[in-house]
Design a protein that fits this description.
Blueprint (H helix, E strand, L loop, with lengths): L29 H15 L1 H10 L26 H10 L4 E2 L1 H6 L2 H5 L3 H5 L3 E2 L3 E3 L7 E2 L2 H13 L7 E5 L5 H14 L13 H10 L17 E5 L3 H4 L1 H12 L3 E5 L5 H4 E3 L1 H5 L5 E3 L3 E3 L6 H19 L6 H7 E2 L1 H10 L2 H8 L3 H13 L3 E5 L1 H4 L4 H14 L9 E4 L6 H6 L8 H11 L11 H9 L5 E5 L3 H4 L3 H9 L3 E6 L12 E6 L7 E3 L2 E3 L1 E4 L4 E5 L13 H13 L7 H4 L3 H11 L6 H4 L6 E2 L16 E2 L15 E6 L4 E2 L2 E2 L15 E4 L1 H7 L6 E8 L2 E12 L6 E5 L24 E7 L2
This protein binds ligand MGD (2 copies) and molybdenum atom (MO).
Molybdenum atom binds next to loops.
Length: about 775
């Protein structure tokens, strides 16, 4: 196999040549596969690696923990991508973290290490405790760990002084038990990673089309005439989506990408499976690439709508889908008003996209009968993020692109089961309908007062109102905004509990006492009562299916997430609960039976999920039934947002590199962007650099500005990059100390990680 020329580069920061001509090497090509195989061999060893790759996303294998993109009905032998392979290899790590490791390394010592180093130390193998005043974690027996948690939780003045965080990798079974435990304990404090991710999509969609999820299925991508990709970088974050896009492009479907960066994998792409057959070839993905300004999406969408409406008027109808609009929507006049009001000056200045380019998009949109809009974090992490989503709905509705084959909305989820966790009730603001059904099915009496989301939890810890913090996976302190502030908030807790597979920053920024509870990962066989169990997950398109690990667990003391949650619940609730917690986890069918009784849409759960491809949850909006207040799609007038960026300042977005999964850093490279060996970088346009007298490779201190407060990170290297003037990008999580905790999206509360106002100064 030919080596990938970019990944073999040894230079520290490879500054990419101006991207005037198309990137010559196909993304996800030979280098992609080679690099994940190399990574797997290094971390897992040959036998384990082969075993792992054979079972990813197969019907009787485990669900890839990489992302939430669905599996096609016709799976190829290896239905995974480079990054999925890497996520899997990272979990199947042959290295072990023993009690000796913790005896050798104090908390202070570990704090001084990089996140990359921490995750590279191997799998956690036994429960550990950090006792008040101690500098080292020490082993603790499972039973003693639960007793300790129980005594701290039961000593609280109120159940609302505890918060239970979930990261989106937890299975449906684990998530269901977890929220059941929190609500049995007496609180809705169930913050989750969704609060920082697609919360804005959920809010925007539930209030417009009446469901909080996407409406399309994989089959719709085979019928669409146009796919819009807004604020999403699938080449890196959802590589298997590229297969779907490439297939669509090959049959003539238009694909328009809207992004401040020219993400190479969206421009050119080669199919990794073809590469395995030594056939590597590339195909143009995007028919049009629109380099919008950060947060210029509403202006751009407004411009497209303006042209669509004008054309309809010019032709005397036939462009707008009047039949759909009259039968299915309310609020059209308000939308038309906002479209008429917007001036071209404002549209072009705010979007940063020339009028001719917007005209080209509008022509393609009007020539397409079936349009899908996909989006991710570039849309959801802004102050006006919910408005962004509503404007996407407006655009689609104008031509009836909702609830019909080959058309609809597709918020592309991040974590592999983040959507399922919500379906299972991991949500701080559940509806009365959900709670009533849960209570009827389980016999508990759920609290009704809404709980804290992620940002509110941090505030409550700061204020001493939350004293016990428990996390089912994730890396709370690194993933949340304002890192030092969040760390200080956690330090005020009496107890922090982390259920984890690998060491991370959140194990080091703890409460007075801390528990580290090691769990099985997706890839590992989960034996209960001598019988191998499977769990279930829900993908981005509402398909619920099985996931069953095969590997020998990384250690004999590891327990499954459902087991840990159930035993914690039994210890904490004692005689206060009538639920048979420990018996539920002896046979997971029993958990699923309880889910069937307690959650809408899970009739005959155990039977249906045993079908080869699982089953699809009903989605009313797909059938043009709108569960909104009016029973119709709510069209809304969205103002073009204006973020105040003072002269000299830049608008900064935090983005993911190729070699990371959220806070887990696999390697220090970002191959498709040509950045190697360094993550503490800031991407700036050559014009903005020249204005500031800066050059590529310079070290700068970056300061964010919000409501008069300043936050600074030091010594980031400047990379000249093809990015609109006035815009800049840095990596998540290195840039999180710059993201102000109180800068949140309206309605959804999502931290505005894609619009941070910053200034640069040459580092002394
Ligand atoms: N390998 C890998 N896969 C992952 C993850 C990972 O870290 N690594 N994370 C998972 C998770 S939890 C999630 S949520 C998804 C995230 O998937 P993405 O949303 O694709 O991830 P980000 O890197 O945050 O990318 C945001 C993209 O939006 C663009 N963007 C930023 N601001 C704007 C804007 O204002 N307008 C527009 N139009 N574009 C904008 C950025 O340039 C970037 O291309 O990926 C999931 N999959
Ligand atoms: N600035 C900025 N901040 C962001 C974002 C951004 O774009 N910019 N994105 C946000 C988004 S979209 C998200 S989803 C959040 C992510 O926030 P989180 O979900 O909290 O973070 P992750 O990095 O995905 O969590 C990684 C940790 O999960 C643990 N883990 C891995 N597998 C398992 C498992 O099977 N079980 C258990 N129990 N633990 C496991 C490992 O210990 C690992 O260290 O971050 C958000 N933060
Ligand atoms: Mo996410």
């Amino acid at each position: 196999m030919p080596a990938d020329p970019l990944s073999s580069s040894k230079s520290l920061v490879r500054v990419p040549a101006p991207l005037k001509k198309p990137y010559a090497h196909a993304a996800a090509g030979p280098g992609a596969v080679l690099s994940s195989i190399r990574y797997a061999l290094r971390t897992s060893g040959v036998v384990r690696a082969v075993h792992v790759f054979k079972n990813v996303n197969q019907r009787h294998g485990f669900d890839c923990p990489g992302c939430a993109w669905p599996d096609p009905d016709h799976r190829s032998v290896a239905e995974f991508c480079e990054n999925g392979a890497r996520a899997v290899a990272h979990e199947a790590d042959a290295r072990r973290l023993s009690r000796d490791f913790f005896a050798q390394h104090s908390i202070e010592d570990l704090r001084a290490r990089s996140d990359h180093w921490l995750e590279q130390q191997g799998r956690l193998t036994e429960p550990m405790v950090l006792r008040a005043g101690s500098c080292h974690y020490e082993p603790i027996a499972w039973g003693d760990a639960f007793a300790l948690a129980a005594s701290e939780l039961n000593a609280l003045g109120s159940p609302d002084e505890a918060a239970f965080y979930t990261s989106g990798r937890a299975s449906n079974e684990a998530a269901f038990l977890y929220q059941l435990f929190a609500r049995s304990f007496g609180t809705n404090n169930l913050p989750d990673c969704s609060n920082m991710c697609h919360e804005s999509s959920g809010k925007g969609l539930s209030t417009t089309i009446g469901v909080s999820k996407g409406t399309v299925q994989l089959g719709d991508f085979e019928q669409a005439d146009l796919i819009l990709i807004l604020g999403q970088n699938p080449g890196t974050n959802h590589p298997r989506m590229l297969s779907t896009l490439a297939a669509a492009a090959r049959r003539g479907c238009k694909i328009i990408s809207v992004n401040p960066l020219r993400e190479r994998a969206l421009e050119v792409f080669a199919h990794p499976q073809k590469v395995l057959g030594l056939l590597g070839y590339g195909a143009a993905i995007s028919s049009q690439y629109v380099q919008v300004r950060i947060n210029g999406d509403v202006a751009l969408l407004k411009g497209i709508m303006k042209l669509v409406v004008e054309e309809d008027r010019k032709r005397g109808g036939g462009v707008l889908d009047r039949a759909f609009l009259e039968a299915h929507t309310v609020g059209l006049d308000a939308v038309l008003g906002s479209v008429d009001e917007a001036s071209w000056d404002e549209i072009v200045t705010s979007s940063g996209v020339p009028r001719e380019e917007i005209e080209e998009i509008a022509r393609t949109y009007m020539a397409s009968e079936r349009v899908i809009a996909c989006w991710a974090m570039g849309i959801t992490q802004h102050k006006n993020a919910v408005g962004n989503v509503r404007e996407i709905v407006n655009l689609l509705a104008l031509r009836g692109n909702l609830g019909k084959a080959g058309a609809g909305v597709c918020p592309v989820r991040g974590h592999s089961n983040v959507q399922g966790d919500r379906t299972m009730g991991v949500y701080e603001a559940p509806s009365e309908e959900f709670l009533a059904r849960l209570d009827a099915g389980t016999g508990i009496t759920s609290p009704r007062a809404p709980g804290h989301d992620v940002v509110a939890t941090i505030h409550a810890m700061e204020g001493g109102r939350v004293k016990v913090f428990c996390a089912l996976g994730g890396n709370f302190v690194a993933a949340t905004p304002d890192t030092p502030r969040t760390a200080a908030a956690l330090a005020r807790c009496a107890l922090t509990v982390q259920v984890s597979t690998k060491l991370n920053r959140s194990h080091l920024e703890t409460g007075r006492t801390a528990l580290l509870l090691p769990c099985l990962g997706r890839t590992e066989a989960d034996l209960q009562g001598g019988k191998r169990q499977f769990v279930t997950v829900e993908d981005s398109m509402s398909v619920v299916h099985r996931s069953e690990g095969r590997l020998r667990p990384a250690g004999e003391h590891l327990r499954s997430e459902p087991w840990i949650v159930a035993h914690l619940a039994a210890a904490v609730l004692g005689a206060r609960t009538r639920l048979p917690w420990t018996s539920l986890v002896e046979e997971y069918d029993r958990i699923r039976d309880l889910i069937e009784e307690s959650v809408e849409g899970f009739e005959r759960f155990n039977e249906r999920v045993r079908a080869d491809d699982g089953f699809v949850l009903a989605n009313a909006a797909r059938e043009r039934t709108w569960s909104t207040a009016t029973g119709r799609v709510a069209l809304t007038a969205q103002p073009i947002p204006h973020i105040e960026v003072p002269p000299g300042a830049l608008l900064m977005m935090t983005i993911r590199s190729h070699d990371q999964f959220n806070t887990t850093i696999y390697e220090l490279n970002d191959r498709y962007r040509g950045i190697h060996g360094e993550r503490r970088v800031i991407l700036v346009s050559p014009e903005d650099l020249a204005l500031r007298g800066l050059e590529g490779g310079d070290h700068v201190d970056v300061t964010s500005h919000f409501r008069g407060a300043e936050r600074t990170v030091r010594g980031f290297r400047v990379v000249p990059y093809d990015i609109p003037r006035g815009c800049t990008a840095m990596y998540f999580p290195e840039a999180n100390p710059l993201v102000p905790l109180d800068s949140q999206a309206d309605e959804s509360g999502t931290p505005t990680s894609k619009s941070v106002v910053v200034t640069l100064a040459l580092a002394p």
